[in-house]
Design goal:
The protein has helices at residues 20-30, 46-57, 77-84, 87-90, 154-157; strands spanning 5-11, 34-38, 61-67, 112-117, 137-140, 144-148, 161-167. With 171 residues, it is α/β, with parallel strands linked by helices. Helix 1 (20-30) packs parallel to helix 2.
Amino acid sequence: VNAKGARYVMQRPDEGENFIQGVHLDLINSAKEEILIANVFALFTKEMKLALRRAAARGVKIIILTNGPINDKGNPIVNTVSRFYYRDLVYGNHPDLDKEFDPTLKFPTDQIVIHEWNGRLQGETKPDIHIVMHSKFMVIDKTVGVVGSFNMDYASLKNLEQIVLFESEEL
């Protein structure tokens, strides 16, 4: 399958480069119908959360797949803590939203949907089998995709990260 176009983007924070979050924000801001995100954690930066809230207020459907708390074997608290931040995304009018989130941004609670990966096959009961979802990708309006190492969180802003951005309905 051929992509209409593809771009490789790298950021080196030690060199003053911070391009990747900008690419993600530009894509979120351009979305008209749907944003699909798979990310290890739901610890999005404030800029990412605000852009997602603005997209939801424009009527863009947002579906996020992230790990449930049972899957984070290396640091079990991270995904539990990230659940606290779901409120910043799924509630258009939550009374405890941080002040930087524009309170005028209203949207239905089903405009942003978060699914948690539990790491087991349906019907699996073995307690020692947990497969962590480590994917990091985003698809905008079924035409533009991003895949790479960027976790969409604050830690990734400090790391050398790489993504490939491609345009292709087929892919």
